[in-house]
TrEMBL record:
Its membrane topology: Multi-pass membrane protein
Compartments where found: Membrane
Membrane-crossing residue ranges in chain numbering: 21-48, 68-87, 99-118, 162-189, 212-231, 294-313, 349-369, 376-394, 406-427, 439-463, 483-502
Organism of provenance: Juglans regia (English walnut)
Gene Ontology terms: cellular component: membrane
Biological process annotations from GO: arbuscular mycorrhizal association; cellular response to nutrient levels; phosphate ion transport
Keyword annotations from UniProtKB, A to Z: Membrane, Phosphate transport, Symport, Transmembrane, Transmembrane helix, Transport
Lineage: Eukaryota, Viridiplantae, Streptophyta, Embryophyta, Tracheophyta
Major facilitator superfamily (MFS) profile domain span: 23-507
Protein name: Major facilitator superfamily (MFS) profile domain-containing protein
Keyword NADP attributed: no
Entries under InterPro entries matching the protein: MFS_dom (IPR020846), MFS_sugar_transport-like (IPR005828), MFS_trans_sf (IPR036259), Phos_permease (IPR004738)
CDD domains: MFS_PhT
UniProt family annotation: Belongs to the major facilitator superfamily. Phosphate:H(+) symporter (TC 2.A.1.9) family.
Length: 523
């Protein structure tokens, strides 16, 4: 039915044009902000600990207690999970574009508000910060299903994978910018208030102005989002939504004539015929959906869940690795602002070497190798490297093998980004029918965030030493790093198995994939 719709054919066959790139930037800005906001908090947690939790006269500067540290980072994840489900559903109900503006405004407002967190006591500042970070996460969550769906519905079928991957790859730049902003701010403050290290003079190592440092870093996230608001509002609703969901053929043809700069006629009867076909009206909980897309949804949700457990558990080792290689010296040897600089420098190097190349490898190869191959291959290599780190774990802890450990560790994340981290985002935007596309993407993404919560917190507790005397302050003993790595290897292996449930979508039009274009169904 939909195959005959000229609007969709025109989009599928369109040459790569300027509007494709503007769409990537507009949709990608959400991801940029997302990565920036979730990432910048890890740069300033040490500083927050110093400002609000330093005990006078102690040998080391203060750190956030485990429950506060978990709350500050975890609350944004919980907000994201809720936002993915809610805005995913809303994006199919009200249209991609209308909801898209709401999520962006929410992100801008909450990024600024979290930098203005106030209160008399440490507790009240942290509570206000957590409150606004939850709603920031909620807005960010809405960006996942909407950005992916908008990009996939705007793209042509030949290079659709690369376009959606490019939107996702903006995350890498968000991370990088987070690091760079922190470096610039901390350097500026360090020059202005040249503070001594904590050992030399505990009180003077934390100039009162350092409270501005984290606030500036956190609030900067609002700027890129605010800049794209205007462009987001000018972007027309996607033709697939207008024609196949809102059933307004005329509007779809008008919008896309502007975008593609060609004349398109409105095919009213075809749209009506399409909408009367019972095969195009089944809901999410219907038997028909289960029969056609049930396994697909299981595949996309479980793969994303498993991947994020592994992907977000990386935070466990980062601190240890940095300190071990000597990139980040012991906290008492630095002033508060210098510490922000050192952490930001280390994170920026990781983003440059480990994160960004993987994303762009995906952009380059996804329409050549296909989604399925990249996801399977990525999970395979992640499994191999996790086991290679875990089994001779003692060997890697020795001083002379540190660099080897870092290389292996970076490779794991290179193959996450040139692998399932990108493909789990792309597939759900392609294989579900237009009227459920944003909802199903939201469900898959929310499963991923649930995995992130397990990875970031479950493994934080699990990786603690089995010996109660060696755990981090405030944590109960766990199963140790070696066993945690073995578990993560197993999780990646499961990811390989569940990848077998997802279809290959390379080079096919969206309607072909969802069965929305079968001329006459054999009923």
């Amino acid at each position: 039915m939909a195959r005959e719709l000229g609007v969709l054919n025109a989009l599928d066959g369109a040459k790569t044009q300027w509007y494709h790139f503007t769409a990537i930037v507009i949709a990608g800005m959400g991801f940029f902000t997302d990565a920036y906001d979730l990432f910048c908090i890890s740069l300033v947690t040490k500083l927050l600990g110093r400002i609000y939790y330093t005990v006078e006269g102690s040998a080391k500067p203060g750190t956030l207690p485990p429950n506060v540290a978990d709350a500050v980072t975890g609350v944004a994840f919980c907000g994201t999970l809720a936002g993915q489900l809610f805005f995913g559903w809303l994006g199919d109900k009200l249209g991609r574009k209308r909801v898209y503006g709401i999520t962006l405004l929410l992100m801008v407002f909450c990024a600024v508000a979290s930098g203005l967190s106030f209160g008399h006591s440490a507790k009240s500042v942290m509570a206000t910060l957590c409150f606004f970070r939850f709603w920031l996460g909620f807005g960010i969550g809405g960006d996942y299903p909407l950005s992916a769906t908008i990009m996939s519905e705007y793209a042509n079928k030949k290079t659709r994978g690369a376009f959606i991957a490019a939107v996702f790859a903006m995350q890498g730049f968000g991370n990088l910018t987070g690091g760079i902003v922190a470096i610039i701010v901390s350097t500026a403050f360090d020059h202005a208030y040249n503070a001594p290290s904590y050992e030399v003079d505990a009180a003077a190592s934390l100039p009162s102005q350092s409270d501005y440092v984290w606030r500036i870093i956190v609030m900067f996230g609002a700027i890129p989002a605010a800049l794209t608001y205007y462009w987001r509002m000018k972007m027309p609703e996607t033709a697939r939504y207008t024609a196949l969901v809102a059933k307004n053929a005329k509007q779809a043809a008008q919008d896309m004539s502007k975008v593609l700069q060609v004349e398109l006629e409105a095919e009213v009867e075809k749209t009506e015929r399409y909408s009367q076909d019972p095969g195009n009206s089944f809901g999410l909980f219907s038997k028909e959906f289960r029969k056609r897309h049930g396994l697909h949804l299981v595949g996309t949700t479980v793969c994303w869940f498993l991947l994020d457990i592994a992907f977000y558990s990386q935070n466990l080792f980062q601190k240890d690795i940095f300190s071990a290689i000597g990139w980040i010296p012991a906290s008492q040897t630095m002033s508060a602002i210098e510490e922000v600089f050192k952490i930001a420098r280390a994170q920026t190097l990781i983003a440059l070497c480990g994160l960004i190349p993987g994303y762009w490898f995906t952009v380059a190869f996804i329409d050549i190798l296909g989604r399925f191959t990249i996801q399977l291959m990525g999970f395979f290599f992640m499994t191999v490297f996790m086991f290679a780190l875990a089994i001779p774990y003692h060997h890697w802890t020795l001083k002379e093998n540190r660099i080897g450990f870092l290389v292996m560790y970076s490779l794991t994340f290179f193959f996450a980004n040139f692998g399932p981290n990108a493909t789990t985002f792309i597939l759900p935007a392609e294989i579900f029918p237009a009227r459920l596309r944003s909802t199903c993407h939201g469900i898959s993404a929310a499963a991923g965030k649930a995995g992130a919560i397990v990875g970031a917190f479950g493994f934080l507790y699990a990786a603690q030493s089995t010996d109660p005397t060696k755990t981090d302050a405030g944590y109960p003993p766990g199963i140790g790093v070696k066993n945690s790595l073995l578990m993560l290897g197993g999780i990646n292996f499961l990811g390989m198995l569940f990848t077998l449930l997802v279809p290959e979508t390379k080079g096919k039009s969206l309607e072909e994939l969802t069965g929305e274009n079968e001329e006459e169904r054999s009923s």
